[in-house]
Please model this.
Amino acid sequence: MPPIQHRARRETGHAQRVHPTAAQARTPHRFVDDDCPRHELDSALTSRLDQAIEKVRRQAGIPGVVAGLWMPGKGSYVRATGIADTASGEPMNPNVFVRIGSETKTFTVTAPLELVDDGRLGLDDPISDYVRHVPNGSRITLRHLAEMRSGLFPYTDDADFQHDLLSDPTRAFTPQQVLAYGFKHKNTFAPGAQFQYSNTQVVALAT
Model:
């Protein structure tokens, strides 16, 4: 697994932009699977999606959204709505570059689910079968980690990690390094007892 890069600054909401034509906001995306046709989904469905996405965007107070849906055998849907830059009011566009951040957690959890489908591992396997030195690892399952119910201490709450990050915001950490910050603490609760959002769990699952 490649080094993990954390950013010590808050995101401003300004995105790096490329400038599309107006039509690009309503054209099929160029990155599609081989089994997903390049044409758009039918007009009735795209209209419903347009309305639903815009409604949620306004209700949540989100400045701009790019949404994509790819349906094998049926087509694709990509829309940009709202603004990309709150200072200039520039419209959002489907080719905008933004920091992906914790969206990668969904990818991380999807990978073991696919391995479960392939019969290569089980969701109730203990993480100790795959990663060494996990506190209470023999009782913490892959399911607990995927659901963020393992009780592992969030390494981002560790004072040493915060010091090391803030003293060098561009520093890259290996998975083993960030896990070590969390593993030196006692677990916060018994596996499965409650939910706690924690990067430690996702890194352990990915390692």
Summary: The first strand starts at residue 4 and ends at 5. The CA atoms of residues 54 and 68 lie 13 Å apart. The helical segments are 43-60, 104-117, 142-146, 159-167, 175-183, 199-206. Confidence is low (pLDDT under 50) at residues 7-32.
